[in-house]
């Protein structure tokens, strides 16, 4: 089938580009989404590592995808730590569309998918996965999985149709280099250097290339918009940060944790093309575009409150950049890859 050919061709090493992780022309992104949303499942296993319950699905045509199951309804509010709670499956998909809108091309395609516990999973489940499934008190077959935080009493159960909803995320069979983020949180009450040193960016400039620093600032804006405060490390491929693991966004629409933007307001620099892209999505265009993209695949990706929150945070990004421009001048702030 065309779709299978396509997906295996473009996700293998054949796609050799410095511009993006996947082709973005001739409708390729839509074909990839369609394939990972609908292709027959040949094998299901627990994902080999990670902190959160995640399945690894082998599709017909040999493409692998991660499946992050839904843990919360869209209107569930995560209180407490910015990195708290289970991953939000809709945050993964929202992040993919947000990245497309911002023209960030280094992110694996992700889409909402529903899989049936008895039709799609059980017949092709590995023995290892079956060992992490339990019947709950009403006799439904549920999964607790295998991961750092997985607990037998914290299962994912099918809905009344026997289906589990989740984010289907294209699996990238590539070698990533992993780096610690200079702006990582301590995950305790201890303050990190970036939280106490106003000149922290100077130090980072001494360590990282201009390209990497500007890339980290793009990622900070992206994470701020969805409120993903959990990117303590980042993966690099072809000298580009790849946006993996975006499930910690959209936790609480009432909160804007501003320090996720620290790379931007501490360094006061930004890639000029990022600024252009940000300016183009003002006045509700960001929301409209993500809603339309989600609707194309039949999904609502966030509540109205979350869309409003993302728009509100976008205004804060504009204000931060304007503050920087006011302080240092446009030519010092907006960069074309060189500092
Ligand atoms: C599951 O059990 C652990 C202790 O093993 C407990 O800390 C946790 O709160 C329980 N989770 C739920 C949802 O009851
Ligand atoms: C068992 O799982 C089913 C399906 O998710 C759910 O409707 C039911 O309430 C659960 N029963 C118990 C006792 O948790």
Overview of this protein structure:
There is one protein chain. The chain is built from 13 helices and twelve strands. The chain is α+β, with helices and mostly antiparallel strands and 339 residues long. It folds into two domains: 2-170, no CATH class; 177-335, Phosphatidylinositol 3-kinase Catalytic Subunit, Chain A, Domain 5 (Orthogonal Bundle). The strands form four sheets. It has a five-stranded antiparallel sheet, sandwiched between helices. A three-stranded antiparallel sheet has the order 8-9-10, covered by helices on one side. Strands 5-6 form a two-stranded antiparallel ribbon. α1 (2-11) crosses α2 (28-38), α3 packs across α11 and α8 (210-226) packs antiparallel against α12 (304-328). It is globular and about 65 Å long. 36% of the residues are buried. One 2-acetamido-2-deoxy-beta-D-glucopyranose is lined by residues 151, 153-154. One 2-acetamido-2-deoxy-beta-D-glucopyranose (NAG) binds at residues 151, 153-154.
In summary, what is this structure?
The chain has 339 residues and is an alpha+beta fold. The protein has 13 helices and 12 strands. The mean pLDDT is 94.
